Fold this sequence. Notes:
Layout: H1 4-14, H2 31-43, E1 49-55, H3 63-66, E2 70-77, H4 80-89, E3 96-100, E4 114-119, H5 128-141, E5 142-153, H6 155-158, H7 174-183, E6 186-194, E7 203-210, E8 220-224, H8 227-241
Parallel strand pairs: 1-2, 1-4, 2-3, 4-5, 6-8
Antiparallel strand pairs: 5-7, 6-7
Amino acid sequence: MPSLEWNRQTWNGRYDWSGRGEEWSAPWGGSEPQWFGALFPRLHRILPAGAVLEIAPGFGRWTKFLLPLCDTYLGIDLSAQCVDACREVFAAASHATFAQNDGRVLDAAPAASFDLVFSFDSLVHAEIDILEAYIPQILQKLTPAGVAFIHHSNFRDAGKNLLNPHSRATSGSAARVAQMVEQHAGKVLVQELVNWGDPVLHDCITTFGNAAAYRDVTPAYLANPEFIAEASIIRRFHSHYCHIDAAG
């Protein structure tokens, strides 16, 4: 059960960041094929965006793809080590700002300002109390038609009696997240249950926005046991194309 203190200690000194998080994209062949093969197809109707808020960017594995697709970017992480690393790596990006928080509060982000709130591969380690704190704040940070794309744990519902090698939050639940979104005047647009390293759907990607803007949208609830199988296909084809660069 990864507590807030576990997350703080793990990502702020205990974890070996020498790979900059790329190790988590190994099934796809790296962050580039994972972004363009798995994440961007799910985000292509949202990006480019005027303003993007990324929660827990780590060492900027997804930040480098988000920055060219927005006018303003804010990354918030509880790890001072991660914030310092991002400030150094993306120092030339004048439209990007990075801030440290306590793992619960998004005060650095102004209200009603972000067209996309994005978090992938981070909040899967956040227990339900953290999501209870974040979800109403996320809805407050979105512009009226803004969208949140949040990767979180579904371990409570799908992972019972299983080993937990990826340190998923054991209280995480797709159903509970959907309920919280609705309780705070939000609306689930797509909720996709996915696997990670085994057939069990113990992860979830929830895409949601403000209910007033999306009242005519019918939510899609999907079960995708092929998420990791897709990774192997993407990795195989990327290996043939990744050496091609534009002439000149």
